[in-house]
Amino acid sequence: MNHIASKNIEPRTNKLTNSHKVVGLEEAIRRTNLRNGMTISFHHHFRGGDKVVNMVVDKLAQMGYKDLHLAASSLTDVHEPLIEHIRNGVITRISTSGLRGRLAQEISFGLMKEPVVFRSHGSRASAIANSEIHIDVAFLAASSSDPMGNAAGYSRSANAKSICGSIGYALPDAQYADKVVIITDDLVPYPNRPSGIVEMDVDYVVVVDSVGDSSKIASGAIRDTKNPRDILLAQQAAKVIINSGYFNTGFSIQTGSGGASLAAVKYIRQSMIDRNIKASFALGGITAHMVRMHQEGLIERLLDVQSFDRVAAESLMSDRMHKEISSIEYASPTEPGSATHFLDIVILSALEVDTNFNVNVLVGSDGIIRGAIGGHPDTAADAALSIIVCPLIRGRIPCVVDKVTTLITPGNTVDVVVTEYGIAVNPLRPDIKQKLQEAKLNILDINTLKEKAEQIIGKPQPLPFGNKTIGVVLGRDGSVIDEIKNIEAKDM
After folding, report:
1. What letter does residue 271 receive in the DSSP assignment?
2. pTM higher than 0.90
3. DSSP characters for 341-396?
4. How do residues 109-133 score in pLDDT, each as one tens digit?
5. Smallest Cα–Cα separation from 362: which of 142, 152, 118?
6. Is the pLDDT of residue 7 over 50?
7. For 1-84, where are the E strands, in sequence order?
Protein backbone atom coordinates (compact mmCIF):
# COMPACT_ATOMS: atom_id res chain seq x y z
CA MET A 1 0.00 0.00 0.00
CA ASN A 2 2.86 2.37 0.81
CA HIS A 3 4.44 1.66 -2.57
CA ILE A 4 1.21 2.47 -4.36
CA ALA A 5 0.59 5.59 -2.28
CA SER A 6 4.06 6.92 -3.08
CA LYS A 7 3.38 7.14 -6.82
CA ASN A 8 3.26 10.73 -8.09
CA ILE A 9 0.11 10.54 -10.21
CA GLU A 10 -2.94 12.72 -10.73
CA PRO A 11 -6.16 11.58 -9.04
CA ARG A 12 -8.09 9.32 -11.39
CA THR A 13 -11.17 11.58 -11.27
CA ASN A 14 -9.14 14.38 -12.86
CA LYS A 15 -7.95 12.05 -15.61
CA LEU A 16 -11.53 11.22 -16.46
CA THR A 17 -12.68 14.83 -16.71
CA ASN A 18 -9.62 16.68 -18.00
CA SER A 19 -7.49 16.11 -21.06
CA HIS A 20 -4.60 17.78 -22.83
CA LYS A 21 -6.76 17.55 -25.96
CA VAL A 22 -9.33 20.09 -24.70
CA VAL A 23 -8.20 23.54 -25.86
CA GLY A 24 -9.67 26.71 -27.35
CA LEU A 25 -10.30 27.00 -31.08
CA GLU A 26 -7.36 29.30 -31.80
CA GLU A 27 -4.99 27.13 -29.79
CA ALA A 28 -6.23 24.01 -31.56
CA ILE A 29 -5.58 25.62 -34.93
CA ARG A 30 -2.05 26.61 -33.89
CA ARG A 31 -1.26 23.13 -32.60
CA THR A 32 -2.33 21.49 -35.86
CA ASN A 33 0.47 23.35 -37.67
CA LEU A 34 -1.99 24.42 -40.35
CA ARG A 35 -0.26 26.47 -43.05
CA ASN A 36 -1.35 28.56 -46.00
CA GLY A 37 -2.35 26.47 -49.00
CA MET A 38 -3.46 23.46 -46.96
CA THR A 39 -6.77 21.58 -47.06
CA ILE A 40 -9.41 21.85 -44.34
CA SER A 41 -12.59 19.79 -44.21
CA PHE A 42 -16.06 19.89 -42.64
CA HIS A 43 -19.25 17.85 -42.70
CA HIS A 44 -22.80 19.08 -43.36
CA HIS A 45 -24.95 16.97 -41.03
CA PHE A 46 -26.50 20.09 -39.48
CA ARG A 47 -27.42 21.24 -42.99
CA GLY A 48 -29.01 24.74 -42.81
CA GLY A 49 -28.36 24.86 -39.06
CA ASP A 50 -24.58 24.43 -39.28
CA LYS A 51 -22.51 26.92 -37.30
CA VAL A 52 -19.04 25.36 -37.42
CA VAL A 53 -17.89 26.18 -40.97
CA ASN A 54 -18.43 29.92 -40.56
CA MET A 55 -17.03 29.88 -37.02
CA VAL A 56 -13.80 28.18 -38.01
CA VAL A 57 -13.20 30.07 -41.27
CA ASP A 58 -13.85 33.38 -39.47
CA LYS A 59 -11.18 32.43 -36.94
CA LEU A 60 -8.76 31.37 -39.68
CA ALA A 61 -9.27 34.73 -41.39
CA GLN A 62 -8.59 36.55 -38.12
CA MET A 63 -5.38 34.56 -37.72
CA GLY A 64 -4.21 35.59 -41.18
CA TYR A 65 -4.51 32.34 -43.10
CA LYS A 66 -4.70 32.48 -46.92
CA ASP A 67 -5.07 30.22 -49.96
CA LEU A 68 -6.91 27.43 -48.15
CA HIS A 69 -8.69 24.55 -49.87
CA LEU A 70 -12.11 23.96 -48.29
CA ALA A 71 -13.14 20.32 -48.75
CA ALA A 72 -16.64 20.18 -47.25
CA SER A 73 -19.04 17.29 -47.76
CA SER A 74 -21.61 19.94 -48.79
CA LEU A 75 -22.30 23.67 -48.41
CA THR A 76 -25.67 25.37 -47.96
CA ASP A 77 -27.28 28.81 -47.85
CA VAL A 78 -26.09 29.29 -44.25
CA HIS A 79 -22.52 29.51 -45.54
CA GLU A 80 -23.02 32.85 -47.28
CA PRO A 81 -20.26 34.48 -45.12
CA LEU A 82 -17.73 32.42 -47.10
CA ILE A 83 -18.22 34.87 -49.97
CA GLU A 84 -16.08 37.51 -48.24
CA HIS A 85 -13.46 34.95 -47.30
CA ILE A 86 -13.20 33.95 -50.96
CA ARG A 87 -12.91 37.59 -52.03
CA ASN A 88 -10.20 38.16 -49.43
CA GLY A 89 -8.18 35.14 -50.49
CA VAL A 90 -8.70 33.06 -47.34
CA ILE A 91 -10.47 30.36 -49.38
CA THR A 92 -9.20 29.90 -52.94
CA ARG A 93 -10.36 26.35 -53.70
CA ILE A 94 -13.50 24.38 -52.86
CA SER A 95 -14.30 20.68 -53.18
CA THR A 96 -17.84 19.68 -52.27
CA SER A 97 -20.93 17.72 -53.18
CA GLY A 98 -23.23 20.74 -53.38
CA LEU A 99 -23.75 24.48 -53.12
CA ARG A 100 -26.87 26.45 -52.31
CA GLY A 101 -28.00 29.99 -51.59
CA ARG A 102 -26.14 33.23 -52.28
CA LEU A 103 -22.76 31.52 -52.06
CA ALA A 104 -23.78 29.24 -54.94
CA GLN A 105 -25.16 32.19 -56.88
CA GLU A 106 -21.99 34.25 -56.56
CA ILE A 107 -19.85 31.29 -57.59
CA SER A 108 -22.16 30.75 -60.58
CA PHE A 109 -21.39 34.31 -61.70
CA GLY A 110 -17.64 33.71 -61.49
CA LEU A 111 -16.65 34.61 -57.90
CA MET A 112 -13.79 32.11 -57.70
CA LYS A 113 -10.62 31.97 -59.77
CA GLU A 114 -10.41 28.19 -59.46
CA PRO A 115 -13.39 26.02 -60.45
CA VAL A 116 -15.24 24.22 -57.68
CA VAL A 117 -14.73 20.45 -57.84
CA PHE A 118 -17.98 18.51 -57.37
CA ARG A 119 -18.01 14.86 -56.31
CA SER A 120 -20.75 12.52 -55.17
CA HIS A 121 -20.73 11.38 -51.55
CA GLY A 122 -19.36 7.99 -52.54
CA SER A 123 -16.70 9.50 -54.78
CA ARG A 124 -15.63 11.92 -52.03
CA ALA A 125 -15.26 9.05 -49.59
CA SER A 126 -13.20 7.07 -52.08
CA ALA A 127 -11.05 10.13 -52.93
CA ILE A 128 -10.26 10.68 -49.25
CA ALA A 129 -9.39 7.02 -48.67
CA ASN A 130 -7.21 6.94 -51.82
CA SER A 131 -5.46 10.26 -50.98
CA GLU A 132 -6.87 12.05 -54.02
CA ILE A 133 -8.18 14.47 -51.41
CA HIS A 134 -5.50 14.90 -48.77
CA ILE A 135 -7.02 16.55 -45.69
CA ASP A 136 -4.53 18.41 -43.54
CA VAL A 137 -6.98 19.42 -40.80
CA ALA A 138 -10.57 18.24 -40.32
CA PHE A 139 -12.83 20.42 -38.18
CA LEU A 140 -15.76 18.18 -37.25
CA ALA A 141 -18.90 19.24 -35.40
CA ALA A 142 -20.17 16.79 -32.79
CA SER A 143 -23.31 16.78 -30.69
CA SER A 144 -21.28 15.29 -27.86
CA SER A 145 -17.67 14.44 -27.12
CA ASP A 146 -15.71 13.33 -24.13
CA PRO A 147 -12.35 14.97 -23.33
CA MET A 148 -10.45 12.34 -25.31
CA GLY A 149 -12.44 12.94 -28.51
CA ASN A 150 -14.92 10.09 -28.57
CA ALA A 151 -17.61 11.99 -30.44
CA ALA A 152 -21.13 11.42 -31.75
CA GLY A 153 -24.02 13.16 -33.45
CA TYR A 154 -26.25 12.62 -30.44
CA SER A 155 -25.93 12.82 -26.68
CA ARG A 156 -27.26 11.00 -23.65
CA SER A 157 -26.56 14.07 -21.55
CA ALA A 158 -29.37 16.11 -20.05
CA ASN A 159 -27.46 19.17 -21.30
CA ALA A 160 -27.60 18.15 -24.97
CA LYS A 161 -28.02 21.19 -27.21
CA SER A 162 -27.48 20.21 -30.83
CA ILE A 163 -28.39 16.76 -32.13
CA CYS A 164 -27.83 15.76 -35.76
CA GLY A 165 -27.80 11.95 -35.61
CA SER A 166 -25.46 10.05 -37.89
CA ILE A 167 -22.19 11.76 -38.80
CA GLY A 168 -21.36 9.29 -41.54
CA TYR A 169 -19.91 11.89 -43.90
CA ALA A 170 -17.42 12.97 -41.22
CA LEU A 171 -16.04 9.51 -40.51
CA PRO A 172 -13.61 9.29 -43.47
CA ASP A 173 -12.33 12.77 -42.58
CA ALA A 174 -11.68 11.64 -39.00
CA GLN A 175 -9.99 8.46 -40.17
CA TYR A 176 -7.72 9.91 -42.86
CA ALA A 177 -7.02 13.57 -41.99
CA ASP A 178 -3.56 14.42 -40.69
CA LYS A 179 -5.09 16.33 -37.77
CA VAL A 180 -8.64 16.15 -36.40
CA VAL A 181 -10.33 18.82 -34.29
CA ILE A 182 -13.67 17.94 -32.72
CA ILE A 183 -15.92 20.93 -32.05
CA THR A 184 -18.75 20.29 -29.62
CA ASP A 185 -21.22 22.10 -27.39
CA ASP A 186 -21.66 19.14 -25.04
CA LEU A 187 -18.53 17.87 -23.31
CA VAL A 188 -19.50 14.66 -21.53
CA PRO A 189 -17.56 12.43 -19.13
CA TYR A 190 -15.24 9.77 -20.50
CA PRO A 191 -16.06 7.34 -22.02
CA ASN A 192 -18.68 8.63 -24.48
CA ARG A 193 -20.12 5.40 -25.85
CA PRO A 194 -21.17 4.51 -28.40
CA SER A 195 -19.42 7.09 -30.51
CA GLY A 196 -19.03 7.53 -34.25
CA ILE A 197 -15.58 9.12 -34.06
CA VAL A 198 -13.07 7.41 -31.78
CA GLU A 199 -10.39 9.03 -29.65
CA MET A 200 -7.47 7.45 -31.56
CA ASP A 201 -8.40 9.59 -34.58
CA VAL A 202 -8.77 12.86 -32.63
CA ASP A 203 -6.06 15.38 -31.80
CA TYR A 204 -8.00 18.21 -30.13
CA VAL A 205 -11.44 18.91 -28.66
CA VAL A 206 -12.90 22.43 -28.70
CA VAL A 207 -15.97 23.33 -26.64
CA VAL A 208 -18.20 26.13 -27.96
CA ASP A 209 -21.64 27.52 -27.16
CA SER A 210 -23.38 25.90 -30.13
CA VAL A 211 -22.34 23.79 -33.11
CA GLY A 212 -25.68 23.84 -34.87
CA ASP A 213 -29.44 24.36 -34.90
CA SER A 214 -31.08 20.94 -34.95
CA SER A 215 -34.42 22.41 -36.04
CA LYS A 216 -32.96 23.25 -39.44
CA ILE A 217 -31.88 19.74 -40.36
CA ALA A 218 -35.29 18.75 -41.78
CA SER A 219 -35.79 21.69 -44.12
CA GLY A 220 -35.52 22.58 -47.78
CA ALA A 221 -34.82 19.56 -49.95
CA ILE A 222 -35.61 17.09 -47.14
CA ARG A 223 -38.86 18.61 -45.97
CA ASP A 224 -41.91 16.42 -45.27
CA THR A 225 -43.95 17.55 -48.24
CA LYS A 226 -47.60 18.58 -48.27
CA ASN A 227 -47.44 19.68 -51.91
CA PRO A 228 -50.25 17.90 -53.84
CA ARG A 229 -48.02 17.44 -56.88
CA ASP A 230 -45.25 15.88 -54.78
CA ILE A 231 -47.79 13.56 -53.19
CA LEU A 232 -49.07 12.51 -56.63
CA LEU A 233 -45.50 11.83 -57.78
CA ALA A 234 -44.82 9.83 -54.61
CA GLN A 235 -47.94 7.73 -55.15
CA GLN A 236 -46.95 7.03 -58.76
CA ALA A 237 -43.43 6.08 -57.69
CA ALA A 238 -44.91 3.70 -55.12
CA LYS A 239 -46.96 2.02 -57.87
CA VAL A 240 -43.79 1.57 -59.92
CA ILE A 241 -42.07 -0.08 -56.95
CA ILE A 242 -44.99 -2.35 -56.13
CA ASN A 243 -45.29 -3.59 -59.73
CA SER A 244 -41.58 -3.65 -60.63
CA GLY A 245 -40.80 -7.22 -59.71
CA TYR A 246 -38.42 -6.09 -56.95
CA PHE A 247 -41.13 -5.66 -54.31
CA ASN A 248 -40.53 -8.92 -52.47
CA THR A 249 -39.60 -9.91 -48.94
CA GLY A 250 -35.97 -9.02 -48.28
CA PHE A 251 -35.84 -6.06 -50.67
CA SER A 252 -33.76 -3.00 -49.76
CA ILE A 253 -34.59 0.63 -50.42
CA GLN A 254 -33.26 4.18 -50.32
CA THR A 255 -34.99 7.49 -50.90
CA GLY A 256 -33.07 10.57 -51.98
CA SER A 257 -33.73 14.18 -51.01
CA GLY A 258 -36.79 15.94 -52.41
CA GLY A 259 -40.31 15.87 -51.08
CA ALA A 260 -41.71 13.34 -53.55
CA SER A 261 -38.89 10.82 -53.28
CA LEU A 262 -38.91 10.95 -49.48
CA ALA A 263 -42.70 10.58 -49.36
CA ALA A 264 -42.77 7.54 -51.64
CA VAL A 265 -41.85 5.20 -48.81
CA LYS A 266 -45.08 6.14 -46.99
CA TYR A 267 -47.15 4.85 -49.89
CA ILE A 268 -45.59 1.39 -50.06
CA ARG A 269 -46.23 0.81 -46.36
CA GLN A 270 -49.80 -0.43 -46.68
CA SER A 271 -48.90 -2.76 -49.52
CA MET A 272 -46.11 -4.20 -47.38
CA ILE A 273 -48.62 -4.85 -44.62
CA ASP A 274 -51.23 -6.31 -46.99
CA ARG A 275 -48.74 -8.62 -48.72
CA ASN A 276 -46.71 -9.44 -45.59
CA ILE A 277 -43.55 -8.08 -47.25
CA LYS A 278 -40.63 -7.00 -45.09
CA ALA A 279 -37.57 -5.06 -46.23
CA SER A 280 -34.10 -6.19 -45.22
CA PHE A 281 -32.74 -2.65 -44.85
CA ALA A 282 -33.39 1.00 -45.61
CA LEU A 283 -30.33 3.00 -46.55
CA GLY A 284 -28.98 6.53 -46.74
CA GLY A 285 -30.69 9.52 -45.25
CA ILE A 286 -33.01 8.02 -42.66
CA THR A 287 -36.36 9.69 -41.93
CA ALA A 288 -39.09 9.43 -39.31
CA HIS A 289 -41.20 7.46 -41.82
CA MET A 290 -38.49 4.81 -42.09
CA VAL A 291 -38.07 4.70 -38.32
CA ARG A 292 -41.79 4.12 -37.92
CA MET A 293 -41.79 1.27 -40.46
CA HIS A 294 -38.76 -0.23 -38.73
CA GLN A 295 -40.53 -0.08 -35.37
CA GLU A 296 -43.55 -1.75 -36.98
CA GLY A 297 -41.35 -4.60 -38.15
CA LEU A 298 -41.59 -3.71 -41.84
CA ILE A 299 -37.91 -2.79 -42.21
CA GLU A 300 -35.39 -4.99 -40.42
CA ARG A 301 -32.40 -2.63 -40.29
CA LEU A 302 -31.67 1.04 -40.83
CA LEU A 303 -28.26 1.92 -42.30
CA ASP A 304 -27.86 5.61 -41.56
CA VAL A 305 -25.23 7.81 -43.21
CA GLN A 306 -27.24 10.98 -42.49
CA SER A 307 -30.25 11.44 -40.21
CA PHE A 308 -32.86 13.59 -41.94
CA ASP A 309 -34.83 14.57 -38.82
CA ARG A 310 -34.72 14.44 -35.03
CA VAL A 311 -36.80 11.26 -34.83
CA ALA A 312 -34.15 9.45 -36.86
CA ALA A 313 -31.37 10.95 -34.74
CA GLU A 314 -32.98 9.76 -31.50
CA SER A 315 -33.65 6.32 -32.95
CA LEU A 316 -29.97 5.97 -33.84
CA MET A 317 -29.06 6.65 -30.23
CA SER A 318 -31.37 3.99 -28.78
CA ASP A 319 -31.94 1.22 -31.35
CA ARG A 320 -29.19 -1.33 -31.94
CA MET A 321 -30.72 -2.25 -35.32
CA HIS A 322 -30.33 1.37 -36.45
CA LYS A 323 -26.68 1.56 -37.50
CA GLU A 324 -24.50 4.56 -38.26
CA ILE A 325 -22.35 3.96 -41.36
CA SER A 326 -19.53 6.00 -42.89
CA SER A 327 -19.78 7.35 -46.42
CA ILE A 328 -17.19 4.73 -47.41
CA GLU A 329 -19.43 1.96 -46.12
CA TYR A 330 -22.39 3.73 -47.70
CA ALA A 331 -21.42 4.34 -51.32
CA SER A 332 -17.71 4.25 -52.12
CA PRO A 333 -17.34 2.83 -55.64
CA THR A 334 -13.97 1.33 -54.69
CA GLU A 335 -15.23 -0.46 -51.57
CA PRO A 336 -16.65 -3.91 -52.48
CA GLY A 337 -18.71 -4.01 -49.29
CA SER A 338 -20.39 -0.62 -49.63
CA ALA A 339 -24.13 -0.82 -49.02
CA THR A 340 -25.19 0.63 -52.37
CA HIS A 341 -23.81 -2.50 -54.04
CA PHE A 342 -26.57 -4.45 -52.27
CA LEU A 343 -29.36 -1.94 -52.90
CA ASP A 344 -32.49 -3.07 -54.74
CA ILE A 345 -34.56 0.10 -55.13
CA VAL A 346 -33.71 3.80 -55.00
CA ILE A 347 -36.12 6.71 -55.51
CA LEU A 348 -34.38 9.97 -56.45
CA SER A 349 -35.39 13.51 -57.36
CA ALA A 350 -34.15 15.65 -60.26
CA LEU A 351 -33.96 19.21 -61.49
CA GLU A 352 -33.86 17.99 -65.09
CA VAL A 353 -34.01 14.74 -67.04
CA ASP A 354 -33.22 14.59 -70.74
CA THR A 355 -34.40 12.31 -73.52
CA ASN A 356 -31.36 10.06 -72.97
CA PHE A 357 -32.36 9.67 -69.29
CA ASN A 358 -29.38 11.72 -68.10
CA VAL A 359 -30.13 13.57 -64.86
CA ASN A 360 -29.13 16.97 -63.47
CA VAL A 361 -29.52 17.62 -59.75
CA LEU A 362 -26.96 20.40 -59.36
CA VAL A 363 -27.54 23.34 -61.70
CA GLY A 364 -30.90 25.01 -62.15
CA SER A 365 -32.42 25.59 -65.57
CA ASP A 366 -31.36 29.22 -65.12
CA GLY A 367 -27.71 28.19 -64.95
CA ILE A 368 -27.37 28.89 -61.21
CA ILE A 369 -25.95 26.18 -58.97
CA ARG A 370 -28.71 25.34 -56.52
CA GLY A 371 -28.37 21.75 -55.40
CA ALA A 372 -26.11 18.87 -54.51
CA ILE A 373 -24.91 15.70 -56.18
CA GLY A 374 -25.19 13.79 -52.90
CA GLY A 375 -25.41 10.05 -53.41
CA HIS A 376 -27.48 10.41 -56.61
CA PRO A 377 -25.06 8.84 -59.14
CA ASP A 378 -23.82 6.32 -56.56
CA THR A 379 -27.21 4.84 -55.83
CA ALA A 380 -28.47 5.07 -59.42
CA ALA A 381 -25.45 3.12 -60.65
CA ASP A 382 -25.58 0.42 -58.00
CA ALA A 383 -29.31 -0.12 -57.36
CA ALA A 384 -31.15 -2.85 -59.23
CA LEU A 385 -33.97 -0.38 -59.90
CA SER A 386 -33.40 3.38 -60.02
CA ILE A 387 -36.48 5.60 -60.15
CA ILE A 388 -36.35 9.36 -60.81
CA VAL A 389 -39.33 11.46 -59.72
CA CYS A 390 -39.69 14.98 -61.05
CA PRO A 391 -42.51 17.24 -62.22
CA LEU A 392 -42.88 17.72 -65.95
CA ILE A 393 -42.77 21.47 -65.36
CA ARG A 394 -41.40 23.44 -62.41
CA GLY A 395 -42.77 26.99 -62.44
CA ARG A 396 -42.44 28.01 -66.09
CA ILE A 397 -39.46 25.72 -66.70
CA PRO A 398 -39.59 22.27 -68.31
CA CYS A 399 -37.93 19.46 -66.35
CA VAL A 400 -37.86 16.96 -69.21
CA VAL A 401 -35.56 18.42 -71.87
CA ASP A 402 -33.46 17.58 -74.92
CA LYS A 403 -30.22 17.85 -72.97
CA VAL A 404 -29.64 18.48 -69.28
CA THR A 405 -27.90 21.72 -68.30
CA THR A 406 -25.29 19.74 -66.36
CA LEU A 407 -24.71 15.99 -66.45
CA ILE A 408 -24.64 14.45 -62.98
CA THR A 409 -26.13 10.96 -63.28
CA PRO A 410 -25.59 9.15 -66.62
CA GLY A 411 -28.72 7.91 -68.34
CA ASN A 412 -27.53 4.32 -68.59
CA THR A 413 -27.90 4.07 -64.79
CA VAL A 414 -31.48 5.41 -64.72
CA ASP A 415 -34.35 2.95 -65.18
CA VAL A 416 -37.62 4.85 -64.72
CA VAL A 417 -38.70 8.50 -64.79
CA VAL A 418 -41.96 9.35 -63.02
CA THR A 419 -43.83 12.59 -63.80
CA GLU A 420 -47.38 13.67 -63.07
CA TYR A 421 -48.18 13.27 -66.79
CA GLY A 422 -46.81 9.78 -67.21
CA ILE A 423 -43.98 7.33 -66.63
CA ALA A 424 -41.05 6.76 -68.96
CA VAL A 425 -38.97 3.57 -68.87
CA ASN A 426 -35.42 3.44 -70.17
CA PRO A 427 -35.26 1.29 -73.35
CA LEU A 428 -32.42 -0.57 -71.62
CA ARG A 429 -35.05 -2.03 -69.25
CA PRO A 430 -37.75 -3.72 -71.38
CA ASP A 431 -38.39 -6.10 -68.47
CA ILE A 432 -39.51 -3.21 -66.25
CA LYS A 433 -41.58 -1.67 -69.03
CA GLN A 434 -43.48 -4.90 -69.58
CA LYS A 435 -44.30 -5.28 -65.88
CA LEU A 436 -45.53 -1.69 -65.57
CA GLN A 437 -47.64 -1.98 -68.71
CA GLU A 438 -49.21 -5.17 -67.39
CA ALA A 439 -50.08 -3.20 -64.24
CA LYS A 440 -51.91 -0.65 -66.48
CA LEU A 441 -49.66 2.26 -65.47
CA ASN A 442 -49.46 5.25 -67.83
CA ILE A 443 -46.27 4.44 -69.73
CA LEU A 444 -45.07 7.04 -72.25
CA ASP A 445 -41.98 7.56 -74.34
CA ILE A 446 -39.55 10.04 -72.79
CA ASN A 447 -39.72 12.13 -75.99
CA THR A 448 -43.49 12.34 -75.61
CA LEU A 449 -43.04 13.79 -72.14
CA LYS A 450 -40.55 16.36 -73.44
CA GLU A 451 -42.92 17.38 -76.22
CA LYS A 452 -45.80 17.67 -73.75
CA ALA A 453 -43.75 20.07 -71.64
CA GLU A 454 -42.93 22.19 -74.69
CA GLN A 455 -46.59 22.26 -75.75
CA ILE A 456 -47.50 23.73 -72.37
CA ILE A 457 -44.79 26.39 -71.99
CA GLY A 458 -42.80 26.45 -75.20
CA LYS A 459 -39.18 25.61 -75.93
CA PRO A 460 -36.73 27.25 -73.51
CA GLN A 461 -34.15 29.72 -74.81
CA PRO A 462 -30.44 28.93 -74.55
CA LEU A 463 -28.82 30.16 -71.36
CA PRO A 464 -26.29 33.06 -71.47
CA PHE A 465 -23.29 31.01 -70.35
CA GLY A 466 -19.86 32.61 -70.48
CA ASN A 467 -16.51 31.02 -71.24
CA LYS A 468 -15.20 30.70 -67.69
CA THR A 469 -15.34 27.24 -66.09
CA ILE A 470 -16.63 27.75 -62.55
CA GLY A 471 -17.26 24.11 -61.71
CA VAL A 472 -16.01 20.66 -62.66
CA VAL A 473 -18.17 17.58 -62.15
CA LEU A 474 -16.30 14.34 -61.52
CA GLY A 475 -17.83 10.95 -62.18
CA ARG A 476 -17.61 8.00 -59.83
CA ASP A 477 -14.33 6.94 -61.44
CA GLY A 478 -12.79 10.37 -60.90
CA SER A 479 -12.97 11.45 -64.54
CA VAL A 480 -14.47 14.79 -65.60
CA ILE A 481 -17.98 14.20 -66.94
CA ASP A 482 -19.07 17.83 -67.29
CA GLU A 483 -18.02 21.43 -66.74
CA ILE A 484 -20.14 24.29 -65.44
CA LYS A 485 -19.70 27.68 -67.12
CA ASN A 486 -20.38 31.04 -65.56
CA ILE A 487 -23.60 32.97 -66.12
CA GLU A 488 -22.77 36.27 -67.80
CA ALA A 489 -25.55 38.62 -66.66
CA LYS A 490 -27.10 38.95 -63.21
CA ASP A 491 -30.09 40.87 -64.53
CA MET A 492 -31.16 38.30 -67.10
Report:
1. H
2. yes
3. GG--EEEEE-SEEETT--EE-SB-TTS-B-EE-TTHHHHHHHSSEEEEE--SEETT
4. 999 999 999 999 999 999 999 999 9
5. 118
6. no
7. 39-42, 68-72
